[in-house]
Amino acid sequence: MTTQVNTIVVGGGQAGLSVSHYLKQHAVEHMVLEQADQPGDAWRSHRWDSFTLNTPRWQSRVPGARYGDDDSDGFMPKQEVVAHLEQLASRLPVRTRVRVASVSRITRGDYVVTLDGGDTITARNVVMATGLYQTPKIPQLARNFPDEIKQLHSDNYRNPEQLLPGAVLVVGSAQSGAQIAEELYESGRKVYLATGRAGRTPRRYRGRDANWWFARMGQYDRKVSELPSPRAKFVGKPHISGTKGGHTINLHQFVRDGVTLLGRFEGIENGIVKLGSDLHDNLAAADRAEAEFVSAVDAHIAATGLSAPEETLPVLRDGFDQKILTDLDLTAAGITNVIWATGYSFDFSLVRLPVTDGDGFPIQTRGVTAYPGLFFVGLPWLHTAKSGLIYGLSEDARYVADRVADRCAAGDERTTALLPPPSASREPKRSRATKWADRVLTLIWSSALSLMLDGFAQHAAAMYPTARQNPPDQANSAIAPTGATPPRGDGAARRSI
Fold first, then answer.
1. 24 and 159 belong to one structural domain
2. What is the arithmetic mean of pLDDT over 48-61?
3. For residue 455, what pLDDT band results from cuts at 50, 70 and 90?
4. Which residues pair with 273 in a beta bridge?
5. Is residue 17 part of a domain?
6. Is residue 263 a contact partner of residue 319, using CB atoms and an 8 Å limit?
7. Which of 474, 487, 395, 479 is nearest to 62 (CA)?
8. 164, 147, 127: which is closest to 23 by C-alpha?
């Protein structure tokens, strides 16, 4: 059966729902397709029970959702995020349990969206809102663990009671890995954490949340063109947490609390885990990121004359006192569980057009592709640093919805893609201190990339048979180059964001 709709939005997470909200304001006929039973499934079914957003509420409000009086500086638990998305979706044209198999373009410029089961929808516009966090990524070496070891990806982890009795090896120390490790050791578990080069940002400094400082210094408005490398889009996020009212995560504190820190995971043979000797380098990278953040904030305060209380953050060194292990006997350590906090792969091959670059990332300008009527939204660095956050959805989703509405108003199927002119207006001149602060913040976000690319990218093809769709990210720097488990399914399954 074939139906016709002006615009199809693929994905019923916060990005797709936000676009739908603005399309509704424009009175554009459209439909949101979500493969799960309910919208917002990534939050409902793919986060652990205690998961809390790392961004304060003032950065976490989805366009169109109704928020009452709340603590704008507090942090939303996942249940609250889900409730707001469900409430928003109830007012929008959303179809659930619909899996898109392909999107193709026909001769006259319209698009055919083919669903599982063979039904098709013809649309003048298609907005892809499936995000990057699509398929949990587990390296092939996971198969070498003894059968009695329980293995989970962070995508499937829910709570400590889910695990077997005994110690836990967590592989990956970016946000998910660090937060799960913290929950596990606070529940009484013995935890071993294989680390990578993720940085650390203090939750608060000089009277304000770290994210307030990032916003104040204009870091969220930085354009994708300002990145030192296209692959900097994929660098993992620093240690920080929104739980317990928001707090700093510090690996040195983990050591004080009984966690055994390890270098990156290199393999396993006969029940012996092989580890890199880079633990101290990883700790130094996290310490350096915090120091650079502090320096940037201090410079900004000095340059702007902003009133802020003086503060000196505590300096912990416990991790450097820990012996570096290059071998870890699972049996002797009592390890019965492994949690892979190793990120996700993405694949946009269901769009049957050449719309991705060498890393598999969509080729677009602010969500607009070279193919009239085909758009992307909800991706990190789609346009600015905040594009991958709920915080950036209002601007990006509105922009894409406006472009769709423009096409509807024009009524010309030969309309060319509405790409911004190449001669963009010049940025206003900035002070030396502001430029220095920008440079430091750039280093914070890209330091992990620069530290790992030399030793990692050269092995990317060997590590990932489908490296084009699996660019290096911070979480994976906790694993030495090796094979990756192929994505499950036929490439058409998508997790909406």
1. no
2. 95
3. very low
4. 268, 328
5. yes
6. no
7. 395
8. 127
pLDDT, tens only, 23-33: 999 999 999 99
Cβ neighbour number for residue 100 with a 10 Å cutoff: 24
Decide if 476 contacts 343 (C-beta within 8 A): yes
Query: Which residue, 167, 224, 157, 129, is CA-closest to 446?
Result: 224
Question: What is the bridge-based pairing of β-strands 265-269 and 272-275?
Answer: antiparallel
- How is residue 230 written in tokens? 């296209």
Amino acid at 479: I
Amino acid at 436: W
For residues 280 and 288, the answer to whether their CB atoms sit within 8 Å is no
| pTM for the predicted model, two decimal places | 0.84
Taking the C-alpha atoms of 249, 254, 255 and 259 in order, what is their torsion angle to the nearest 10 degrees?
-150
Cα three-residue angle 281-235-79, rounded to 5 degrees: 110
- What residues are paired with 339 via a beta bridge? 152, 170
- Residue range 292-314: mean pLDDT, rounded: 97
b/e map 249-288, b = 16+ CB within 10 Å: bbbbbbbeeebbbbbbbbebeeeebebbebbeebbebbbb
Identify the residue with better confidence: 463 or 123.
123
Task: Report yes or no on 28 lying in a domain.
Answer: yes
**What is the distance between the alpha carbons of residues 482 and 137, in angstroms, rounded to a whole number?**
12
pLDDT on residue 453: 30
Q: Which H helix or E strand runs over 205?
A: strand 204-205
Amino acid at the residue 113: V
Structure tokens at 131: 């995000």
Residue 85 lies in a domain: yes
Query: Does one domain contain both 169 and 316?
Result: yes
Residue-number span of the structural domain to which 197 is assigned: 137-341+433-478
Would you state the structure tokens that stand for residue 41, as one six-digit string? 């499934």
Please give the helix or strand (H or E) that residue 299 lies within, else none: helix 279-304
**Predicted confidence (pLDDT) at residue 391 exceeds the cutoff of 70:** yes
Clarify whether residues 372 and 315 are in a common domain. Answer: no
Helix (H) or strand (E) holding 301: helix 279-304
- Residue 165 and residue 125 in one domain: no
The tokens for 237 are 């996020």
Mean pLDDT over each residue of the chain, to the nearest integer: 86
> Do 175 and 239 form a contact (C-beta atoms < 8 A)?
yes
For the four alpha carbons of 5, 409, 418 and 396, in that order, the dihedral sign comes to: negative
User: Do 168 and 288 lie in a common domain?
Assistant: yes
Residues 214-227, buried b or exposed e (16+ Cβ, 10 A)?
Answer: bbebebbebebeeb
Amino acid identity of 284? A
CA 462 to each of CA 130, 135, 266, 456: distance values in angstroms, whole numbers, following the listed order: 27, 19, 14, 10
Phi, psi dihedral angles at 68 (to 5 degrees): -85, -165
- Count of structural domains, the chain: 2
The residue among 106, 130, 102 whose CA lies nearest residue 117 is 102
Which DSSP symbol is given to 319?
A: G
Q: Does residue 485 form part of some domain?
A: no
